[in-house]
Amino acid sequence: MIRVDDVSFRHPHTTDDVVKSASFSVANGRIAALLGPNGSGKTTLFKCIAGIWKPRGGAILLDGTDTASLSFRERALLLAMVPQDHTPPFPYTALEAVLMGRAAHVGMYASPSSADVDKARAALETVGVGRLADRPYTRVSGGERQLILIARALAQEAPILLLDEPTSHLDFRNQHAVLSMVRRVAEDKGLTVLMTLHDPNLAAHFAHQVVLLKEGGVIADGTTEDVLTAERLEQLYGVGIGVMTDTERRLFYPAS
Amino acid sequence: MKTRIIILIILCLPLTALDAAAATITWRDKTGTDVTVRVPVRRAVLYETYELLPVTGAWDRVAGISRFALENDLLRAVKPDFSRAINSAGSAMDVNAEALFRLRPDVIITWSSNPKAVAFLRARGLPVIAVYPESIAELYDVMRLQGRLFGKERKVKAAIAEMERIFSLIRSRTASIPPNGRRRAVWIGGKPTTAAGRVGVTNDLFRIINLENAAGSIAGRTADVPLERIAAWNPELVFIWGNARYGAADILGNPQWRHVRAVKERAVFKAPRWSVWSPRIAPIALWMASRAYPERFRDVSIEKTIDGFYRKVYGIPYGKVTRIAN
Amino acid sequence: MAAPLLAALFALFLGAYGMSPVQVLAALRDGLSGIDSPETAIILDIRLPRIVLAGLAGMALATSGATLQAVLRNPLVDPFILGISSGAAFGCALTIGFAPFIPLQAAAFLGGGLAVLIACLVARTGDGGMSRLSLVLSGVIVSAFFSAMVSLIKFFVEPMKLQSIVFWLMGSFSLAEWSQAHSAGIGILLGCLPVLLLRWRLNVISMGDEEARTMGVNVSRKRIIFITAATLASTSAVAVSGIIGWAGLMVPHLVRMLAGPDHRRLIPLTMAGGATFMILADTAARNMTDFDIPVGIITAVAGAPFFVYLMKRNGKESWGR
Q1: Biggest CA-to-CA distance, chain A
Q2: Where are the alpha helices (DSSP H) in chain A?
Q3: In Å, how far is A110's CA from the nearest CA of chain C?
Q4: Which tens digit of pLDDT belongs to each residue from C173-189?
Q5: Chain C interface, Cβ < 8 Å to B
Q6: Domain boundary residue among A157, A188, A210?
Q7: What pTM, to 2 d.p., does this model score?
Q8: Assembly ipTM
Q9: Chain-chain contact of C292 with B218 (C-beta, under 8 angstroms)
Q10: Domains of chain C listed by start with CATH number
């Protein structure tokens, strides 16, 4: 479970809060999407939850524990992150890259055991790129690399999964393919998922819960049906929104 | 009309006198440049070969000197307060250009190992003579040059004569040694693995003393060689440059050298911290000869002979300078 | 992995003294059984300590380079970029010139450590992190500063001490002896050991501060450990052999191209590769000509073209893109 409690953040040497008293919760096993326009503080809030940045005020609780009191390792056992941008520093193989997700489980002076390697391989299979295990992950497509990073997060075996704009570098087909896989795996393993998204339609299709963030503040938080309406989205993006509905889904589009 | 011409001639006479007094000499220096200098020189700057100053006695004609000269034992012994009148102008390797210009030198003697400095000063119109004596004959030339610069040719000639007297003494004792009877010696420098080759003043000294330069296969002045090569040469004598940081004890005590003949026979000697570009190279040679072939110099009192040299060339007893340690 | 031993064996047979292989083996046998002769002195007191010192220094520089490349996520980094070697040089020059009672190793470590500390402080950004680029830039600045300070010291030091500083700045193993191998060996082994033990964590750290933190690694603490270890190893080498360039940059890169970037393999192979490389380079330095060429020239002349060739052959992959 993720609970964000009155969290504020401002960059050092600035006077304005980028995140202003944000509060929301994500229940166990739920998939939540964080939506907001550019500059809404989405990524900042995300990094605070992931433990990369320290909030100026408020608390973040993972499964009931205040993250401020956790060591990096303890936090990694609760929460795994898939970054939006990743520049490979060296041509590690996909397996070596995924294996790094086991860091919280491997002793300080030790190297990963064969059990760790097995779990890494299994994670690659789960996301569907098992065949790339021995390929340098610099020599794969952008989409495949994204899958490898997701496998790395899965190998970490943490109950909470955070994804930062998981579809931003993916093509039209892969956006859906990757998010369906995430949803399937989350349901299989009972993971709690929070992802930032820029496309409300993806949120509509794949998330149980949606949180809208505008100018650093939460303006809506609830189930997808309740929160994702044309009015709300107009309020969020500041542009007219049109809706198309059929039996299976709703589609939002900017209407001038 | 006639009176006017006579007055004109009389007025011109002083001019001719002026002309005669201002002579010049031209010298081809080590960089191959012909340098012309007006003599006698009045404001010389000596970065090198300053140990000739006590010979020429031209203290009042020197405006600047190397900073290393200020600590020189010979200069301080001959003229203890010389540093008050003569300023430091940096050293041959780090020329202080501004200090130099302020001294308004009419000649600068430095070494040729800093070509950039030489070119820099010449480009600004200063007369620079670059020297690097690589033989005793060349050293004599440089000494005679100083004699001409200061108008003290006779004093230099006398000093050279004294040097030759000592060299003759050495030759008289060692010339009869057959080639296969010569001892093998090596002169090492700043690093124990830097050996003097078959070019240079030290090699000339070996020749006078009739020593074989164990490092004779080195074609140049000096070379840094692997320690193994020195072990392979197996010299019977080792002479250490006076300004080296280490001493004879360091070589004698170093286990890496233990099988070298010179170490086994304890024939390792450190030269005094005297310049080798100076008349003092003669007493150095005598000392080296007495260490190389002690049996041939038993009847010669090295101390007395050196003392005699100092008195004749510099007018001071040997005791007043830093003596040779071993 | 056995390469350094092979290289050492090879090097043992080559030398200016001119001994045939039979003589070398005889000398070894004699020396080990306590017999003393000129040949045993050559082998056991001149050649062997030099080979061992070259191997240790090569291992130290290469390992230090690999560690820094991982921590700074930049294959173009080595002990010198961060200013470590210039700082070590400064520390040594200071003690040689003015305080000879301070052991050289300690002075080198303090100097190198000071340089790294300044470089890190200068590069620190507002939120406590350190951007990769600014660290490299500040390293370059610190390096230049300490080099200038060494030049300054040279002016204030008397000629005899000046020689020591100058000779030792031109990296060479020509005066190698056992005492140096002992004193440097301690620092080098102490520096390489933590890196060897923690080598898998280097993989994680190379992923970047943010990601490594979310994977559970205390990046700030590990970075201090790794940089300190790299500093200790490289400054210990610099203190005995002077500044030798290129090895810390090239060997890890070469090994990475041949064996992949996983540090579980990379670190031990780099240690072996660095030792082998330096032993071979030094053997060339003392045998190619009548003279004893400073080994830094060999490492540069041999390393640069070979490196370019490998880069061209592997193409973009060699940069990890």
Answers
A1: 60
A2: 42-50, 72-78, 94-99, 114-127, 142-155, 172-189, 200-206, 224-227, 230-237
A3: 7
A4: 888 889 889 989 999 99
A5: 15-18, 37-38, 41-42, 45-47, 155, 159-161, 163-164, 167, 174-175, 177, 286-287, 290-292
A6: A157
A7: 0.83
A8: 0.87
A9: no
A10: 3-319 (1.10.3470.10)
